[in-house]
Amino acid sequence: MRPGGFWVDGTLGAGGHAAALLERCAPDGRLLATDRDAETLDRAPRGLAGSGRAELVHADFRELPALLDERGARPDGVLLDLGVSSLQLDDPERGFSFRADGPLDMRLDRSRGETAADLVHGLAECDLADLIYRYGEERASRRVARAIVRARERQPLATTGELAAVVRRVVPRGRRFGLDPATRTFQALRIAVNRELEGLGDALRALAARLAPGGRLAVIAFHSLEDREVKHGFRALARDGFRLLTRKPIRPGEAERIANPRSRSARLRGLERLAEAA
Description:
By secondary structure, the protein is α/β, with parallel strands linked by helices. It has helices at about 15-25, 40, 45-50, 65-70, 85-90, 115-120, 125-135, 140-155, 160-170, 185-195, 200-210, 225-235, 255-260; strands at about 5-10, 30-35, 55-60, 75-80, 215-220, 240-245, 265-275. It is globular, with a radius of gyration of 20 Å.
């Protein structure tokens, strides 16, 4: 990364990546940062908004191509960190985690859309099982769905703790990383609520097409479904005037995993636009 230029952080989160980008492109580089969570933008580090070089916009990263077209801008680099931020995970009121009891929400944008509770109570058992299997890769999805339906018939499942307890009763604890039995079901509901995979491949292609010559697109994924979309999308682009920067995803080292256990599943892939790209 060089000083100057125009850079994009499509998933602002806690603002760490955006702050690093702004620092590296000083003194006159510009940054566009977006996030679909308006509350995240409200908590953005003061140095971003106060720098005079950063624009913060409440938008999903899939809206970035249109935002770039509106500005007539071709970025030198785009970063997407597709994971849920620690700020969201650690807030019980957001309902992403079962570590602390909270409402079954899971929406990244709380101003719109169905909640996890809506899905848990509104889906038929077979549809719920399919969702948990598809997005959570949970082998016991039918058993989990059956248990959820039986539980909701007795009384509504209102909190993350109540749902997690239902799942734990029918799914054995995994050996890998001591995985909590409820993890895959929560992942599935979160992906479905936020439509995280919907349009991801199209967005990557559209963003790559808008890069300046020599510009780079970097994506951090946190589960295999997302990473698969990124991998296939990047490989297709590599046959059309782009260069893969990562033949295999870059994973965090041991020191980083110890310092930040949530990074253990992160996978970074990068792509560069060649001068002759169409």
